[in-house]
């Protein structure tokens, strides 16, 4: 895996990050640190990446478990240390999973497997942060099943 992060200029604190897979994202700092609040902060990107990693796992595991999953979002709430380095000290993952007749035991299992085995980002951050997880399941009655053809 490769990435390049390039400072965009002499004024401000914006950085253009380019991934080895050919994608780009802008990052910026807070105004009190010389940034102009034009894009996410680098530590916000770490949090976003962790949420994406875990949500990806949960969807994949539930699909492999033959669950009719229609949506998944994870809301992350994090606390950081007061002094440098301001590492994450607590992170809560709250999953909102939508689908038809989802089994709570399989949703719990998917979250647990992501946290304990598959999500490299959360497993790495667990070295400094206390991780907690919660979830809710929303029954989705409005959309046709993936397995049925729509008229």
TrEMBL record:
Pfam families in alphabetical order: OsmC
Under the heading InterPro entries, the entry gives: KH_dom-like_a/b (IPR015946), OsmC/Ohr_fam (IPR003718), OsmC/Ohrsf (IPR036102)
Q: Which domain of life is it from?
A: Bacteria
Query: What PANTHER family does the record tag this protein with?
Result: PROTEIN YHFA
**Name of the protein in question:** OsmC family protein
Q: What is the lineage of its organism?
A: Bacteria, Pseudomonadati, Pseudomonadota, Betaproteobacteria, Burkholderiales
């Amino acid at each position: 895996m490769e990435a390049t992060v390039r400072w965009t200029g002499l004024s401000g604190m914006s950085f253009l990050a380019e991934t080895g897979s050919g994608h780009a994202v802008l990052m910026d700092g807070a105004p009190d640190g010389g940034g102009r609040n034009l894009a996410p902060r680098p530590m916000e990107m770490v949090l976003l990446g962790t949420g994406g990693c875990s949500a990806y796992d949960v969807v994949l595991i539930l699909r492999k478990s033959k669950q009719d999953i229609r949506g998944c979002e994870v809301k992350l709430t994090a606390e950081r240390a007061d002094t440098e380095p301001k590492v994450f000290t607590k992170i809560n993952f709250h999953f909102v999973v939508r689908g038809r007749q989802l089994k709570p035991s399989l949703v719990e299992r998917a979250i647990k497997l992501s946290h304990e085995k598959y999500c490299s980002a959360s497993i790495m951050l667990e070295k400094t942060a206390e991780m907690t997880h919660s979830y809710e399941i929303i029954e989705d009655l409005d959309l046709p099943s993936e397995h049925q053809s729509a008229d």
